[in-house]
Specification:
With about 290 residues, the chain is of the alpha+beta class. The chain has twelve helices and 14 strands. The chain has three domains: about 45 residues; about 110 residues, Uridine Diphospho-n-acetylenolpyruvylglucosamine Reductase, domain 3 (2-Layer Sandwich); about 100 residues, CO dehydrogenase flavoprotein, C-terminal domain (Enolase-like, domain 1), CATH 3.30.390.50. Strand 13 and strand 14 form a beta hairpin. The structure holds flavin-adenine dinucleotide (FAD). Flavin-adenine dinucleotide binds next to strand 2, helix 2, helix 7 and strand 10.
Length: about 290
């Protein structure tokens, strides 16, 4: 339960951080809130020789509106997502999802950047980023690039980030005013990762679904964007037969592992149940 030894670095700017990450090579890891990395180090599942603490870099904190997008600094904490009034008005799904993460102690320190960069299929934010069409701003010593969340997740703990790169911000297009949203997470107890979870946003026009997007958490090696399920829901009044069909389409793309949250078949089924619940709640909230 004691991590291996490591050197600790605390840069004050993105330029300083990416220079350290480039110079120290693949033995260096960014440290954000530490609520995923430190437990992994204590279990010796991660043994970085250098930790580059991003906590002093002011330019990667905070939430701002930019055109039709919301741009959130990677070091913004999950707690800050919950209490930001502007965000609650424009992107209430982020508040609802952040509230489903762990407990207040974790959320005070855990960051959005750490949650999306970690690559753990159990993290709640990545599926939300997929279905909202978010983009990650990535910096390295050699320059900057942007990666669509939908191209970012390649396998459990494998992402499109290359050595020396760090996420600096998350850019999210603001969904239309009046949209309905819901994040439904089945968990065994407070603080648990999802047995299965589903995120939905939708808009209604004359009682029918005009637009719909659906994401799934912890039912595959990566977060999932359930495009087919959303297509089935679109154009409907979300009658029982359509919801059943959409839930089945979502289940069909899952491949959960059997673990102490239940057998694979149960977790697959629960993905569909979460989709049905999230569709109903999002519909009830849409203007
Ligand atoms: C008891 C407990 C329960 C939890 N339950 C949940 C839960 O239900 N849902 C959930 O989503 N999470 C849960 N978590 C995890 C928590 O949300 C973490 O805070 C989050 O996964 C990682 O964010 P962090 O800021 O702590 O990152 P860290 O732990 O510091 O980093 C995580 C990984 O991301 C990398 N990284 C961090 N920031 C960057 C960056 N800007 N650029 C590139 N790489 C970066 C690190 O190198 C590391 O590999 C739980 C944690 C605990 C301890």
């Amino acid at each position: 339960m004691i991590p291996g030894s490591f050197a600790y670095h605390r840069p004050k700017s993105i330029a300083e951080a990416v220079a350290l990450l480039a110079d120290l090579g693949d033995q260096a890891r960014p440290l954000a809130g530490g609520h995923s990395l430190i437990p992994m180090m204590k279990l010796r599942l991660a043994m970085p020789e250098h930790l580059v603490d991003l906590g002093r870099i002011a330019e990667i904190k905070g939430i701002r509106a930019e055109g039709g997008d919301i741009v959130i600094g990677a070091m913004t904490t999950q707690h800050e997502l919950i209490v930001d009034a502007g965000l609650a008005g424009k992107l209430p799904i982020l508040r609802e999802t952040a509230l489903a993460i762990a407990d207040p102690q974790v959320r005070y320190v855990g960051t959005l950047g750490g949650n999306v960069a970690n690559g753990d299929p159990g993290n709640d934010m990545p599926a939300v980023m997929l279905f909202l069409g978010a983009t990650y701003h990535v910096a390295a010593k050699r320059g900057e690039r942007r990666i669509a969340a939908r191209d970012f997740y390649q396998g459990a703990y494998f992402t499109a980030l290359e050595p020396g790169e760090m996420v600096t911000a998350i850019r999210i297009p603001v969904p239309p005013a009046g949209h309905g949203h819901a994040y439904e997470k089945l968990k065994r107890k407070i603080g648990d990762y999802a047995t299965a979870a589903a995120a939905v946003i939708l808009t209604l026009k004359q009682g029918r679904v005009a637009t719909c997007s659906i994401g799934l958490t912890n039912v595959s090696e990566t977060p999932l964007w359930a495009e087919e399920a959303a297509k089935i829901a679109t154009g409907s009044t979300l009658d029982a037969a359509t919801v059943k069909k959409a839930a089945a389409a979502a289940e069909a793309i899952t491949s959960p592992a059997a673990d102490n949250r239940g057998p694979a078949a149960y977790r697959k089924k629960m993905a569909g149940v979460m989709v049905a619940r999230a569709l109903a709640r999002a519909q009830s909230r849409a203007a």
